[in-house]
Amino acid sequence: MPVLLKKIKDEYTNIVESTRPIKGDKLYIQIYKLLYKMIIKTEIPDSFVLPPTRILADTLGVSRSTIIKAYDILILDGLVVSKRNSGYQLKPKESNQIIYAQSNETNHLELSKIGKSFLELADYNVSNSAENLAFSPGLPPLDIFPISQWKNLTNMYWKEIEFANLAYSPSSGIEKLKSNVANYLALTRNIQCNPSQVFIVSGSMQSLFILSSILLNPGENVILEDPTFPNVHAVFKGLLANILVGTIDKKGINVDYLREAKHQSKLIHVTPSCHYPLGIIMPLERREELLQFADENQSYIIENDYEHELNNWEKQIPSIFSLDKRQKTIYLGTFNRILHPSLRIGYIIVPQNLKLPFELMLKHSHRFVSPSIQFVLNQFIERKVLHNHLNNLIAITKERKLFFHDQFNEIFKGSGLSLMANNTLSLQSLVKIKGNYLDKEIVDLLSKNNISVHSFNKCFNAHSPEQGLIFGHCSIAKPIIKNKLIRINSIFQEFQSNQK
């Protein structure tokens, strides 16, 4: 440790005394960049414990909070992990790699057709790393989550718990939460439903898995927007559904195309409040056209309203569910995108005729979401903590999206990466790639540098020449956003040079 401290101090002194110091950087950014360089160049050994924050602060003559901020950014980079009672330790390099076992038919003869189908979907994995927050799509501003209030409510739950509450919980969710979710949606989305139609689930993927299981036989059709979430493709492909693409125009899914293609399907999945990843808001007339098409074909519509709070808070467009007189629309929502995804809690509203099969599928598979989480979320709603958090969420998301767009356009001007402008307040932004570059190559390269973005090309069901990068723009603070964009620009320039 003394040797490392001296090495860091010497490097830091050289920066401070340099005739060309790094201008415009805050102190913790300078120290972060110094440590980042030493880690990348393996000047600090793998799995080595960094100096304690107080000792390093005294050594460099800075405040302890400055060192903590620098270490926190290294954690966001995925280079360092914080271990209780052990300090800050360099992350072992092998833990950054996910090794998939070689898959071939002879190794998996015992699997069912569906088991083999899911085995082929490893390439559809687009989940975010827990360490690489920059720029993981779909993440809210994690640093504004009211942790202390959640903690206090959790403590209250366990303080007042009775032994009877430790038994099995209702599969559909606790009644108070179901009722409050129904009231919440009545106010925010003008959705009128009975609480018995509300099911508390872990998230949209669980809902889609169950819906597909109870409504589709293998080989039957489902209509998906093209492009859309890769994991939505994956769940239907895995369950052996036949995917029919619905092309996208400036108003969302193109109903005229569905008619011209003579698409017929029992299920249609759409994201009307904010199309993923193009950010298109489906206008009222297109929603009515889609309902008419669904009525003609006796189709259920799955309305995945995954970010409705961000785009319907100030100016609402009626949900498809509220417009559907046939009662054949299924509504999906989630708290994972407005609170944080590690909660794993969302909801689905099903028509009356699907209540029993959905509940039985839950009961005989996933059983129920943790009652303690349901209780705390219910208190979050009743005590107006959720309402206050949403106001804060919207304000911070607006601020960081604007900052991200301004910085991106300045840093990447003339680079071959162009930001697509849109007026939706989404948690992610789409960047188009000019030139003959594959987005997968850039995604993989950035991942090796502990930066997470998603492939636009992977969002298409069929082969598409479209190449782009999907950036989450609001999970990290503005200074880190700027620093990471500068880093990406440097990586991309080197990538372009190597391609020539």
Mean pLDDT: 89
Record field, number of beta strands: 14
The first-to-last residue Cα distance is 44 Å
Structural domain count: 3
Number of helices: 18
CATH class of the largest domain: Alpha Beta
Shape: globular
**Strand order in the sheet with the most strands:** 3-10-9-8-7-4-5-6
Radius of gyration: 25 Å
Q: Main sheet, how many strands, which sense, barrel?
A: 8 strands, mixed
User: What structural category characterises the helix and strand content?
Assistant: alpha/beta
Give me the CATH fold name of the largest domain: Aspartate Aminotransferase, domain 2
CATH architecture of the largest domain: 3-Layer(aba) Sandwich
The low-pLDDT segments are 95-103
The CATH superfamily of the largest domain is identified as Type I PLP-dependent aspartate aminotransferase-like (Major domain)
Strand content: 5-15%
Helix content: 40-55%
Write the SSE topology.
Layout (H helix, E strand, L loop, with lengths): L1 H16 L9 H14 L12 H8 L3 H13 L3 E4 L3 E4 L22 H7 L27 H14 L14 H15 L8 E4 L2 H12 L5 E6 L3 H9 L3 E8 L2 E2 L1 H6 L6 E4 L13 H14 L2 E5 L3 H5 L7 H4 L5 E6 L11 E4 L5 H9 L7 H12 L2 H27 L5 E3 L8 E6 L5 H10 L5 E2 L12 E5 L5 H22 L1
Parallel strand pairs: 4-5, 4-7, 7-8, 8-9
Antiparallel strand pairs: 1-2, 3-10, 5-6, 9-10, 11-12, 12-14, 13-14
Helix pairs in contact: 2-4, 3-4, 5-9, 6-15, 7-15, 8-9, 8-14, 16-18
Description:
It is a single chain. Helices cover 43% and strands 13% of the residues. With 500 residues, it is an alpha/beta fold. It folds into three domains: 2-95, Winged helix-like DNA-binding domain superfamily/Winged helix DNA-binding domain (Arc Repressor Mutant, subunit A, Orthogonal Bundle), CATH 1.10.10; 131-144 and 388-499, Aspartate Aminotransferase, domain 1; 163-383, Type I PLP-dependent aspartate aminotransferase-like (Major domain) (Aspartate Aminotransferase, domain 2). β4, α9 (230-238) and β5 (242-249) form a beta-alpha-beta unit. The protein is built from 18 helices and 14 strands.
